[in-house]
Amino acid sequence: MSKVKDKTYLCGMELTMDVIGGKWKSVILWHLRNKTLRFSQLKRRLHGITQKMLTQQLRELEEDGLINRKVFPQVPPKVEYSLTEYGQSIVPVLYSIYQWGINYSKHFDLDLDIPEDIIQKIMTCEV
């Protein structure tokens, strides 16, 4: 059972961070924002995540109602992940966080290895 269902919150931000906080959850949601991905596809996009950690984060996001997990009965097993209808409601928040990161990097003159045309495509929801 989801840890958020066992806790009383006095602040919406605390609840939000329990659901999407940490190193990987927002990034997982970001990659699922406009497509369905298999486990191996997600793992390749998340540099440095272990298989165990990815499995744990996906389970928590599923328990919290943000992602769907679809298992295909075949050998080898095929599992796909996508955002639920409610999970889609976090996408505008993720875009805002993305834009904040771009602005932060510019303000502090940090090197982001993202071409400007890709940034623009992402901000206009073309990617």
From TrEMBL:
<dbReference type="InterPro" id="IPR036390">
    <property type="entry name" value="WH_DNA-bd_sf"/>
</dbReference>
<keyword id="KW-0805">Transcription regulation</keyword>
<dbReference type="Pfam" id="PF01638">
    <property type="entry name" value="HxlR"/>
</dbReference>
<keyword id="KW-0238">DNA-binding</keyword>
<dbReference type="InterPro" id="IPR011991">
    <property type="entry name" value="ArsR-like_HTH"/>
</dbReference>
<protein>
    <submittedName>
        <fullName>Helix-turn-helix domain-containing protein</fullName>
    </submittedName>
</protein>
<dbReference type="InterPro" id="IPR036388">
    <property type="entry name" value="WH-like_DNA-bd_sf"/>
</dbReference>
<dbReference type="InterPro" id="IPR002577">
    <property type="entry name" value="HTH_HxlR"/>
</dbReference>
<keyword id="KW-0804">Transcription</keyword>
<feature type="domain" description="HTH hxlR-type">
    <location>
        <begin position="11"/>
        <end position="109"/>
    </location>
</feature>
